Amino acid sequence: MRVLLANDSSQHSKAAADYLLSLPFRRPIDLDIVSAVVPPMMIDSGTMLMPTDLGLFIDEECEAAKQRVQQTATGLNGPVHSLQTHVPVGSPSTELLNVAEETDADLIVLGAVGHSALQRVLLGSISDYVATHSGTSTLIVRPLRESSQAPSLRKIVIALSGRPEDQRMVDWLRPFKWAGGIEVHLVRILHINSFYRQDIRQKASEFWTDYLKQANAHMLGLESAIQEMGLDTETHLVEGDHIGETLVEYADEHGGDLMMIGDSDSGLLTRVFLGSTSRYVLRHAHCSVLIVRDKHDHREATQEAAAKAHASAH
């Protein structure tokens, strides 16, 4: 597995590195550590001229970033087969995505800032952008409150949707050698429309009964596959008005350490879904969040969309 680890000078970056290397990979990973250097304003607003010391500033920042990345690489103790460092100049979110594409990364790992509303706004500028626009799986590591300590991984919550990406999330667990005692909660949120008490009519219908049977059968099939990996499981069908909010509440109430959410590659609809559910979880969950994607499916979907756009333009 090829993993891209975002690196900066924050304690959350260190927690992300510790979290990544604590994962029980069956085989050593190929690791790329990336620390982007952000240039200052290119034009002086007073003179409208390029600052003369811009080049010197960027050189100094690049050197500091190289030393930091190398220090991180030297201090790593974990299942690493090969290691490369990257110090690009530009927007961190853009450069992270560029390196992920160039290296054909299977997973991007970033540290999240804390839990306040302001910090979540700041998170949105980089982690949220990368998680939304990445073509590969993305793990946002949220440390324990007021701490640089990496969170534990004893309870995983998998948010099911009834779509093919549910199986993708189960398959994502296979490259790991899990220790005993880890719980995996398979959770399917049943959307209930309580507006004008429509939920009463909804739940009384024959369709609702069939829907419950199908959802339960789907969960049990996935549960069997996870149990074969030696993991303890629980399955829950939970009713709620808001899928994202209900998922966050479930993770809080059950002490979830990691929330897994699948992302499909259905063009613009993918981003709509991410905005309504995955992005809500990403911004509001108090635990780490993993958005699971198939990079090959994403690449094919992107190429297909580009071909359609080209055809319509001509």
TrEMBL record:
Alphabetical list of SUPFAM superfamilies matching this protein: Adenine nucleotide alpha hydrolases-like (SSF52402)
Domain UspA per the UniProt entry, residue ranges: 2-142, 154-293
UniProt cross-references to InterPro entries, sorted A to Z: Rossmann-like_a/b/a_fold, Universal_stress_UspA, USP_A, UspA
Family membership noted in the UniProt record: Belongs to the universal stress protein A family.
Name by which UniProt lists this protein: UspA domain protein
Species per Swiss-Prot/TrEMBL record: Rhodopirellula maiorica SM1
